[in-house]
Amino acid sequence: MKGKGPAKVLVVDDDPLVLRILRDKLVEAGFLVATTSSAFGALQVAEEQRPDLMIIDVMLPALPGQKIAAAAKERLGGSGLKVMLYSGKPAKELESLTREAGADGWALKTSDYEALLSQVKRLIGRE
């Protein structure tokens, strides 16, 4: 976490509805939020925005989310960036992908946004 202002979160998902819902829920919870639907542009947005946390959909069409997560940790991990994978895949599979990518956490894609927000706050140290 960089400083005491609102934490910055970057959400990467190819579904515009999911992006809008997550952005609204995170903003409501007090976070600054950027979004992108581009798997290939995600790292560039992260380098420009310098978020505290990236939430990355695993099932992106162009590039799997775990590959973006691994690259983000490699390129920006030194800045304190936390990375969370987000998917409708079974929990055990998502947990395994999270370890494989070196990500910091994961959340299931459900309508339980409180669980997602709780994980976000835990990862960036704002419980």
Strand runs, count: 5
Q: Please, what is the average pLDDT?
A: 91
From the coordinates shown, what is the CATH architecture? 3-Layer(aba) Sandwich
Largest sheet: 5 strands, parallel
Q: What Rg, in angstroms, do the CA atoms define?
A: 13 Å
Figure out the total of helices. 5
| Gross geometry | globular
Report the order of strands and helices.
EHEHEHEHEH
Share of residues in helices: 40-55%
- Domains (count): 1
Q: For the terminal residues, how far apart are their CA atoms?
A: 12 Å
Major β-sheet strand ordering: 2-1-3-4-5
CATH superfamily: Response regulator
What structural class do you assign from the helix and strand content? alpha/beta
CATH class equals: Alpha Beta
Percentage of residues in DSSP E strands: 15-25%
What is the CATH third-level topology name?
Rossmann fold
Poorly predicted parts: none
Report on this model:
The protein has helices at about 15-30, 40-50, 65-75, 90-100, 115-125; strands at about 10, 30-35, 55, 80-85, 105-110. It is α/β, with parallel strands linked by helices. The protein has a single domain (about 10-125), classed as Response regulator (Rossmann fold), CATH 3.40.50. It has a 5-stranded parallel sheet, sandwiched between helices. The two termini are about 10 Å apart. The model has no long low-confidence stretch (mean pLDDT about 90).
Give a brief rundown of this model.
The chain has 127 residues and is an alpha/beta fold. The protein has helices spanning 16-28, 42-49, 65-76, 91-101, 113-123; strands at residues 8-12, 32-36, 53-57, 82-87, 105-108. Helix 2 (42-49) runs parallel beside helix 3 (65-76) and helix 3 runs parallel beside helix 4.
